[in-house]
Design brief:
7-stranded mixed β-sheet; Rossmann fold; 5-stranded parallel β-sheet; 4 domains
Length: 697
Amino acid sequence: MIWPLFSKPYVIDRRLIVDSATDYAERIGAHVIKMRGGITVDNSWLMEPNKPTVIVSTVDQVGSRLLWRGYGVSPNAVPIHAALVGNDALIVLDEAHLSTPFASTLDDVARLRGAGGRPWRVVLMTATPKDRTNCLLPDEEDLRHPLLVRRLNNNKRATLAKASPESFVTQVAGKARSLRRSGNDVVGIVVNTTKDAQEVFAALDGEKILLTGRVRPYDKDRILADAIPRMECGSRNRREALYIVATQTIEVGADLDFDALVTQSAPMDALRQRFGRLDRLGELGESSAVIVHKDLGKDEDCPIYGKQLLKETWQWLNKQQQGKGKDKHVDFGPAAMDATLAMNLPPERDVEPVRELTAADLLVLRQTQPMPMIDVSSWLHGERTQLSTVSVVWRADLDDLERKEWVTAVQASYPVVSEACPVPLYAARSWMRKRPAVAADRVVSGMALRPGDMIVVPASYGGYGPWGWDESSMEPVADIGNVAGACVRLLGADEKTEIVEELERLGLKIENPVATPYPGGLVVSPSNRRVRARAVRLRDHLEEIVAVAHELTDDPVVIEAAQLHDIGKQDARFQVMLGAREELLAKSGHASPYMASQAWAWSGLPAGWRHEVASLTMLPDAASDLLKYLVATHHGYGRTILPVGGDIDLWYRAGGPRWGKMTDALNAAHGAWALAYLEALVRLADWIQSRREQEDV
C-alpha cells in the first residue's frame, strides 16, 4: 500500500474550495498546507519531503510548479518544487470538468515522466464525467444508504420562463421574490454576467449578498466568511431570509445549500452544478426553481457561453418538460436528470482547445538557470482566447502626492494579489479614460492599458463598492494595502514617529519593524537582518548532511553526493574568505553581508567562482555522471549548462564542454522529474542541516 507515503496535492481552480477543503483536512488531523494566490505561501512542506502532507491548492499554483515555472518561486528553488510535485505524489484534481486543459497536461506529464522516479498518480473528481468507463461510481450498496437515497431522489422542480434583454433583470428579481413569498429562506440567484448580477442585486430588497469574480480577493474572503455560515449545509435550522446573487463563481465550492433557485439558462453541465446547490442534502425532499432564458437579439451574443449553445440548450429543456399547463417543469433531481440524460443527451460545449506538452517543450521547461521565458498558462487553462483583464489596486497615498512621485510610492510598497480587483480590459479603459495610473515602472493613461496589466490608482477615483467592482461608484475606495501586504505605509509619518505605537494604533503587528522613508511618509517592513552566524567546520557539516540524507532516502548516489558536494570548499582562497584558521570551514562566522563581501574581495577568488564546480574537479576518477550532476546542482546551477564562474581552467577540468550532452543523457535515462527528485534530495538535506546549524546559534 503506497498511498500513505504520498504527499497529496488537492487541486481545484477555485479559491473558495481551497479554503473549505483546507478547513476539513485540518479538522481530521491531517498535516495541511494551503497554497493559493493572494496569501503568503507556507513552504514548510519543502523541508519535510518524507512526511505525508495534504497540500490544498489551485491549478495555477500546482501546475506552474509542476512545469518548472512556479509562480512566486525563485529560479533556484523551481527545480525542488517541480521535483516534489512531480514525484511521490497523488494529485487529486477536483471539479475536473472546469480544468480540462490541466487534466490533459497531467496526462502528458504522466507520458513524459517515463518509468523512473517515485510513484505519481492523478485522480480526477467531477460530478459530471463524460466517460464513465473508468470511474469510481456508487455501487448498489452505496445507493441504498439513507443519506444517498435522500440526496439522489429529491425532486428539484424547475419551471421555464423566457425574457427579453430589457425585462430580464425585472423577471429574475420577480421570480426570486415569488419564491421568497412561498416560504423559502435562502434563495439563490445565478446569472451569467457580473453586470446582470449587479442589476439583479440592486433590484432586490432585504438581506442580500452579492458574489462575483470582480472583487478583491481580500474582500471576497471577508464576504464569504459572513455568507457561508448562512447558507452552508447543516444551517437550515438557524436560517433567516437571504438572497444570494451570484455568477458562475457559485457553481463549485463549499457545501452551499439553497432552499430555492432562480438561474439564467446555461449549458447543461453548468445548470447541473447550479442545481447541485439546491436542497443539497435532500432535507426538503421537494424544492422549487426557475430557469430564465434571456432571448438575445440578432446582433447580441453571450460572451460567456455563446448565444447558439444557450438557444439549443433552451430548446432541449423545453422538450424535457413534464406535466401540463402551470404544472409543466423539468426535474433536476440527480436521479431524475440521470434518467432524462440516458434517453436524450443535451447540446454540449465545444471541446476546449488544449496545448499538448511535448518532449521539446520539456527540454525548454527544465532549463532553470538561465531560465528561458515561456508562458505555461496555456497548459493550465487552455488556448481559448479569454476575456482580457487588468487588475486594479486603489491606494490612498497617491491622492496626496504629485504625479511624478507615484511610481516611487508604489514601488516602496508593491501591491499584492489580494488587494487587486480583476476587471475586463474594455471596462477598465472606459472607466479610466485619460486619467493616469501606475503600471509597473511608469505612469500611463487608461487608453494605454494592456491585457494583464496591474494598475494602481488613487483611492479617490472610486469604481469599487462594498461588493466589488462598480464603475458607477464615485466614493473613495478603501485602501487595504496595509492589511493585505507584508509592509505598512504610515502616511505623513517621519523620523520622529513612534513606529511601534503607531502600528498598535492601527491594529497591525510587524516583527522587528524597520522604517524606510518614501514620498508619502514611512514604509515599515519586517527586518531582514541576517540571523547571527557561527562558523561551521566542513567535516561536521558534511557528516551531518549525510545523516540527514539517510533520513530522506536510501539511494546510494544521493548519499555519496551529500558526502562530497562541498569538498570544493577546501580551496585555500575559499577558506581565506571564510576566515578559517586551524580547521577547514563550511560556513563563516561573518556577522553581516558586508563583511562577507569584503572577505571575498580579500580572498583572491574571481567574481562568480563557484565551489560546486571546484567540487567536481575533486571527485574520484570513477565518479558516475549522476554523481557529478548531483554535486554540481546542489545550489540550483549546472542543471543544463555548467557555470564558468570566472575560472575557465576550472570549468574545463570540471567537464564544462561536455556538460550539456551529459545532462541531456541523464534526463533521457532517468526522466526529467525523477532526476530533479534526486537533485532535490541532496539540496534539501543541505537546507535542512543549514537550518539546524542556524537554530543552534
